Amino acid sequence: MVSQELLDLLACPSCKGDLEYDATKDTLTCYNRHCPKCGMPVDESGTCQDSECGAQSNSFVGLCYRVEDDIPIMLIYEAEKIPLTS
Ligand SMILES: [Zn+2]
Ligand SMILES: [Zn+2]
Questions:
Q1: pLDDT tens digits, one per residue of 71-82
Q2: Residues 43-53: what's their mean pLDDT?
Q3: Of the ligands numbered here, which is closest to the C-alpha atom of 74?
Q4: Domain spans in the chain, listed from the N-terminal domain onward
Q5: Can you give the pLDDT at residue 1?
Q6: Could you give the CA distance from residue 48 to residue 21 in angstroms, rounded to a whole number?
Q7: Ligand 1 mean position to 73 CA, how many Å?
Q8: Cα(47)–Cα(78) distance, integer angstroms
C-alpha cells in the first residue's frame, strides 16, 4: 500500500504529471503521453523531448510504476510502458 500523503507528493519522473494509484495491482500509472522508445515526454507534434532520443511517433505510452515493499519505484527505465489508445 502507498499512503495518501505519499501519493500527494509523488509525480511522474518523466513528465511531472499526476499518477493514478491502483490499489489492487499496487501500481502507480501516469496516463500522459510519453515516447514509446525512451519514456520521456513528447511535445504537441509527437516529438520526443529527450535530445538524445528525438524520436517522432504517433503512438504513445503511459508509464506504470510498480511498488515494492511499500516503496514506489519511480524510475522511468523500470516503468512498464502501457500503450495509449488515443
Ligand atoms: Zn508521465
Ligand atoms: Zn524518446
A1: 999 999 999 999
A2: 96
A3: 1
A4: 4-83
A5: 82
A6: 26
A7: 14
A8: 22
Give strand pairing partners of 66.
27
Distance between CA atoms of residues 52 and 29, nearest Å: 25
Give pLDDT tens digits for 13-45.
999 999 999 999 999 999 999 999 999 999 999
Which ligand sits nearest to residue 82's alpha carbon? 1
Strand partners, 62: 82
The CA radius of gyration of the chain, in Å to the nearest whole number, is 13
Q: Which residues surround ligand 2, an ion (CB under 5 A)?
A: 35, 37-38, 40, 48, 50, 53, 55
Beta-ladder partners of 6:
none
CATH number belonging to domain 4-83 = 2.20.25.10
Helix residue spans in 1-86 (DSSP H)? 4-9
pLDDT score of 73: 97
CA of 38 to the centre of ligand 1 (A): 12
| Residue 12 pLDDT > 80 | yes
